[in-house]
Specification:
This protein has about 110 residues and is mainly beta. The protein is built from no helices and eleven strands. A hairpin with a 4-residue loop joins strand 7 and strand 8. About 30% of the residues are buried. The mean pLDDT is about 95.
Length: about 110
């Protein structure tokens, strides 16, 4: 059974940086695409960024120029480098991956203080 496990969340001041990591474990097949979503309190889960197996990336407008997604294809790991963080980036961040099935991590909390 495949599991996605996130790490790297925490508390940071506005303008600071964090790096989130997500590792796949279990009976891993090569993920076609991996990415990140987030959910702030009282809001729906929203797309943040994704990266294909070939390295193509897509970002939400709200994070363009501040966040960078990268991937270790050999290990099916994905990273989210977050710079210039804002209080509105506060959310639980979820790792996501898809083969023929979607997989989700349990989430990691990111809190940005003003």
């Amino acid at each position: 059974q495949v599991q996605l496990v996130e790490s790297g969340g925490g508390l940071v001041q506005a303008g600071g940086s964090l790096r989130l990591s997500c590792a796949a474990s279990g009976n891993v097949f090569a993920f076609n695409t991996m990415g990140w979503y987030r959910q702030a309190p009282g809001k729906q889960r929203e797309f943040v960024a994704r990266i294909s197996r070939t390295g193509s990336t897509v970002y939400a407008d709200s994070v363009k120029g501040r966040f960078t997604i990268s991937r270790d294809r050999d290990r099916d790991e994905v990273f989210l480098h977050m710079n210039s963080l804002k209080p509105e980036d506060t959310a639980v961040y979820y790792c996501w991956g898809i083969t023929v099935t979607e997989y989700w991590g349990q989430g990691t909390q990111v809190t940005v203080s003003s």
